[in-house]
Amino acid sequence: MEEVRLSEHVVMLRGDGGVYPNGSPLRVTGGDTVVQIDSSLDSGCAAADLIVLSHYHEDHVVGLGETRAPVTVHRRDLPAVASWDEFVRCMNVPPGALGDELKRTFRLSERPDATPFDDDAVIDVGGGVTLRAVPLPGHTGGHCGFFVEPDGVFFTADVDLSSFGPVYADLESTLPDVRASLARCAEIEAAVYTTFHHKGPYTDRAGFLADLATHAAALDAREARLRALLAERPAGEGPTTARELVGRGVVYRVGGRRPWYADAVEEVIIGHHLAETV
Ligand SMILES: [Zn+2]
Ligand SMILES: [Zn+2]
């Protein structure tokens, strides 16, 4: 893990390459208080006074049971942090796909004492430093970025600016939410932009906006590939299901790397686009 100073009060805890399953939490210091935004495989959360979560996914909540520090997360993602059963339900994958191996790898623990915050909540760090929760739903229902003031650091969490594009496969994911969150990210003027995976930090707004546009363009590319597949079908064939279209290059490249969750994620994402297309 490498510590990268982003501003007077913010340090990025850069995980190995930042690509899933790794990631890059932020440590925000104000007065005598240390707040950590997310945790990761490389950076547990033992040294923080408060853990603020962008969302409930396994790669962001590593080792929450290894600290007594309070944990807070957006109200819509709270149940999945508090309870394993809710985590599994919200992940929206087939029964049995999530189990002890995932728990062991990410050192997952339920935190039934976690507390909720709402859209645009302001969390006071101390010493005049604050975090504003910027609701960016779509990846999960309660997915949030954070704007750190007075530094002007904007953490976009899993709006990760990858050219792969957004992932919207949770129980509460919707395409309109994804589009609105991408637009919201573009509106925010910051001195420094950073993500949890892949990209950043950026100190030039133009560079951030260019990569955000590439990230967002994946939505159109998926839709175009889906339309091409539908057009190939012989006339008179019955309706196509999302499952039949998994592995055909709509979301993941044919022959490319497929993480363990690829089939489930691709089926849900195709389902969202199919619902809009037909
Ligand atoms: Zn995520
Ligand atoms: Zn992530």
Describe this structure in words.
By secondary structure, the chain is α/β, with parallel strands linked by helices. The protein has one domain: 4-Layer Sandwich (Metallo-beta-lactamase, Chain A). 28% of the residues lie in helices and 19% in strands. The chain contains 6 helices and 12 strands. The protein has a 7-stranded mixed β-sheet with strand order 1-2-3-4-5-6-7, with no helix packed on it. Strands 8-9-10-11-12 form a 5-stranded mixed β-sheet, with no helix packed on it. β10 and β11 form a beta hairpin. α5 packs across α6. The structure holds zinc ion (2 copies). The site of one zinc ion (ZN) has 8 residues, from loops. One zinc ion binds next to loops.
Bound molecules: zinc ion
What proportion strand? 15-25%
Overall structural class, as computed from helix and strand content, comes to alpha/beta
Enumerate how many helices there are, as a single number.
6
**What is the end-to-end distance?**
46 Å
Give the tally of structural domains: 1
* Physical arrangement of strands within the biggest beta sheet: 1-2-3-4-5-6-7
Q: Remind me, CATH topology?
A: Metallo-beta-lactamase, Chain A
Strand/helix succession: EEEEEEHHHEEEEEHEHH
User: How much helical structure, as a percent, in the residues?
Assistant: 25-40%
Radius of gyration: 19 Å
- Basic shape: globular
CATH class: Alpha Beta
CATH architecture, by name, is 4-Layer Sandwich
Give the strand tally. Answer: 12
Biggest sheet descriptor? 7 strands, mixed
Let me know the average pLDDT: 95
